[in-house]
Amino acid sequence: MWSLIASFCLGFIFCKVLPNLRHRAFAAVMAQLSKSVDPTAEAFKKKAFDGLLKEQPRRPGATALRILEVGVGTGTNFKFYPEGSHLVVVDPNPYFESYYNANRAKFPNIKSEEFIVAKGEDMEMVEDNSVDVVVVSLVLCSVGDCKKFLQQVLRVLVPGGKLYFLEHVREWDSEKHPTKQRFQDWLTWLQVWPALFDGCELNRETLQLVKSAGFSEVDGQKMYAPIDNFIFQLVNPTIFGTATK
Ligand SMILES: C[S@@+](CC[C@H](N)C(=O)[O-])C[C@H]1O[C@@H](n2cnc3c(N)ncnc32)[C@H](O)[C@@H]1O
């Protein structure tokens, strides 16, 4: 009981009183994690983003694909983008910028723009109908207002353009995994997980959110990510797919 109260208090202090420290620490941890490439996880991401290589520009007169990645973090998805494409990136955590720039320099064949510090909910600086594709990976679990975020995605996409998403979600099988669901709910409700992982919530029903956002077509799949670690199995129920404007 005391340890729960202590984690709650520490989480509260970390989230509310020291947000800069939390953002800085999260960026450093994510940069460290992205250095060790797990081939099984890479294959899983490839499955989600493979279609990107076949995407064509839809903006009138455009010759290169224009991609917007929201919540880009350190920039782990460059390898999935077609050569010659043009990348715009948005992320609210400014401490990711130096890590993103270091990754960006390794992919000179992708024309990447400067890091824009903004939330996906507030990316008014990205013009209406100005991108062919939007990419989000492991972002919607931490977004404050997913409805507003997805409205912004629809606004910036050209008609016919696609959102590619890959997100961990609440366990869907309550018969086989009731305990996992309970842990996901408790750790989120007690603010333990969000405090440790920069606002990440374990129990979001993200596929439903995407389906009700107003896209003309949503093609989503559920799959368990290949994660062996006992604690991190809490994030293995995953959805991925595309949503077309
Ligand atoms: C777990 S990291 C994933 C980073 C990257 N997409 C990847 O797959 O490696 C979550 C990212 O979402 C960003 N994020 C959190 N809230 C956001 C919001 N409201 N709008 C846009 N990005 C957000 C965080 O700053 C962080 O970069």
Unreliable sequence segments: none
Number of H- or I-type helical stretches: 8
Bound ions, cofactors and other small molecules, one mention each: S-adenosylmethionine
Please indicate the count of domains: 1
How are strands sequenced across the largest beta sheet?
A: 3-2-1-4-5-7-6
Largest sheet: 7 strands, mixed
The CATH topology corresponds to: Rossmann fold
Radius of gyration: 18 Å
Number of strands: 7
CATH class: Alpha Beta
| CATH homologous superfamily title | Vaccinia Virus protein VP39
In terms of structural class, how would the helical and strand content be classed?
A: alpha/beta
End-to-end Cα distance: 48 Å
Strand content: 15-25%
- Summarize the helix and strand pattern as letters: HHHEEHEEHEHHHEE
Description:
Keywords: Signal. Residues 68-165 form the Methyltransferase type domain. Pfam families: Methyltransf_11. The protein has 245 residues and is an alpha/beta fold. It has a single domain (2-244), classed as Vaccinia Virus protein VP39 (Rossmann fold), CATH 3.40.50. The protein is 34% helix and 22% strand. The protein is built from eight helices and seven strands, in the order αααββαββαβαααββ. It has helices at 2-17, 19-33, 39-49, 97-104, 146-156, 178-189, 192-196, 206-211; strands at 66-70, 86-91, 111-117, 131-137, 157-168, 217-224, 237-244. A seven-stranded mixed beta sheet has the order 3-2-1-4-5-7-6. Strand 4, helix 5 and strand 5 form a beta-alpha-beta unit. It is globular. It starts with a helix and ends with a strand. 34% of the residues are buried. It binds S-adenosylmethionine.
